[in-house]
Amino acid sequence: MKFNSIFSFLLPKKSVFFPLFNEQTALLIKGSDLFVTFCMETDKEKQKEIYRDIKQVECDCDDVTHKIIDELNNTFITPFDREDIRELADYIDDVADFMNSSAKRAIVYHPTELHPTSEKMSVIIQQSCLKVQQAIAGLENLQKESDNIMVLCSDIKKLEKNGDEAYEEFLNYYFEQEKSAVEIIKQTQIMKTLEKTINSLNEVGKVMKTIVIKYA
Description:
Layout: H1 3-6, H2 17-40, H3 44-74, H4 82-108, H5 116-138, H6 142-177, H7 181-215
Helix pairs in contact: 2-3, 2-4, 2-5, 3-4, 4-7, 5-6, 5-7, 6-7
């Protein structure tokens, strides 16, 4: 029996952290759904309306992240290492931040139109957020769900690789086709932030794998 298991009886019967993490990931799902719609929308005014909703999701996620940190500071016994809880909350929050930043750049920079690769990457983000939500939900019953969580984390890694490939394809072909240096800068900055969103989702997966290794 692992050392952590020996003292598992000391843990509170109901941890406040699991509902808060579930709340965070529910917001990621909402934000990613909005972001896919945003990338598919061609009407600039409608894009602005969707962006406001994405911004609200980002603000709501910030609030939940602050609650997790407050609970971390006020809770003596935690279900996982404090550092892991903090990293998990921060990386989930980063995903919402980067989604918001991607949409904001698309609004502020006024590109002629969003490059089609943005829609492809937004779907990868959406799929990754769903995997994160499923894996986070399994943390509360870690002994039973550990194998499933590891599979989901591997899926997130594969999606991150797909995102990297999409970004590289964009760079390879876009620079050959686009003649406007200004448009290249605009599109590249938007796509770079999309890549950061996908990378942050993979960081969430890495933290969850660490938790499984330590406690399962």
